[in-house]
Amino acid sequence: MRFLVTGGAGFIGSNFVRYLVEKYPDTEIVVLDKLTYAGRQENLADVRKKITFIKGDICREGDIKKAGACDVIFNFAAETHVDRSITGPDLFVKTDVLGTCALLNYAREHDISRYIQISTDEVYGSIRSGSFHETDILDPSSPYSASKAAAEHLAHSYFRTYDLPVITTRSSNNFGPYQYPEKLIPVLILKALSDQPLPIYGTGLNVRDWLYVGDNCTGIDAAYSRGIPGEIYNLGAGNERTNLEIAKIILSVLHKSEDLITFIQDRAGHDFRYSISSEKIRSLGWSPSHPFDEAMARTVEWYVKNSWWWKPLVLAGRS
Ligand code: NAD
Asked: Out of 3.40.50.10190, 3.40.50.2000, 3.90.25.10, 3.20.20.70, which CATH number does the structure's domain 176-208+239-271+290-313 have?
């Protein structure tokens, strides 16, 4: 058995590779990653000897071929930061849509047993009340979420047209170790650690449903091992919090003053609330196992203890 994990040097991908190494010790794991600013070899340092790492771009057929024949593909590779998609959408379309297309073409040429497309709850857009189900229409707001929606539509067209065994997961916002310090939670932790203002968009009342990355890994595994080809699975833990609440939790864990919270101009097209129902993946026997407060405290502690990981990024002005 051979797994190909694209984008495996990023935040969720590297956590997932670590999970696979433990869960499937007899399986060969190949990581294909372009190592953009968000992908780092450091993220895989502790499992490096147990995997095959290939530096390569999913948009380039020649790079994908270097991975050789694989049985299962997990496609995490993507441009992922909403703010960057607002200032430069083209790269998002290239990587997230055309890269997925190249990978799907490669999957078609091989006798793969599963192709797992990692998508996001952001494809649904915002919802004032209630929660989105997998059958709801997609209404993405940012170039990032639109490119992810296009990618999963493409993947499912390969299921219908070519019988490619595609499964998609749509997870809510993840948090945990190795998350690049441009995303909300690591930004707030690192600002708080250095007593700098914690930037909060608009009124801070935007709501996200937070999922600990370890629970996303078990959810993706559940979709892969027990899901049905052609199906889509939402993955959320029901931990809805406003951005302001997140800032206050971090400050409280670090015993810092809430005076550090600073409101800044809102993001263009900022979705107000994300909420998904995870009944379908729960029917496969999955449930999150990390209570929110405990997982947040553990995440803050990871950043406190692992300055070797983030300090070079801060010193290079990349956070
Ligand atoms: P990330 O930005 O931390 O990592 C992305 C990885 O993809 C990096 O290692 C990068 O080098 C790699 N990559 C980018 N372009 C590539 C290319 N052309 N070829 C090969 N590799 C390339 O992202 P993340 O937060 O770990 O997200 C992983 C996946 O999960 C993405 O598909 C994202 O849309 C999805 N997702 C993320 C979240 C979240 O909260 N972070 C929530 C839902 C879904």
From this structure: 3.90.25.10
The yes or no reply on domain 2-174+212-235 and CATH 3.40.50.720 is yes
d(CA 75, CA 13): 9
pLDDT per residue of the chain (319 residues) written in tens, 0 to 9: 999 999 999 999 999 999 999 999 999 999 999 999 999 999 999 999 999 999 999 999 999 999 999 999 999 999 999 999 999 999 999 999 999 999 999 999 998 999 999 999 999 999 999 999 999 999 999 999 999 999 999 999 999 999 999 999 999 999 999 999 999 999 999 999 999 999 999 999 999 999 999 999 999 999 999 999 999 999 999 999 999 999 999 999 999 999 999 999 999 989 999 999 999 999 999 999 999 999 999 999 999 999 999 999 988 876 6
**Full-prediction pTM beyond 0.90?**
yes
- Where are the chain's structural domains? 2-174+212-235, 176-208+239-271+290-313
Tell me the C-alpha distance between 273 and 31, whole Å: 33
Residue 96 Cα to ligand 1 middle (Å): 9
| 177 C-beta closer than 6 A to ligand 1 | no
Whether 122 sits among the annotated catalytic residues: the reply is yes
Distance in Å, CA 255 to ligand 1 centroid: 32
Does the beta carbon of 34 lie inside 6 Å of ligand 1? Answer: yes
CB atoms within 10 A of CB 253: 18
Told to judge if 63 belongs to the known catalytic residues of this protein, a careful annotator would answer no
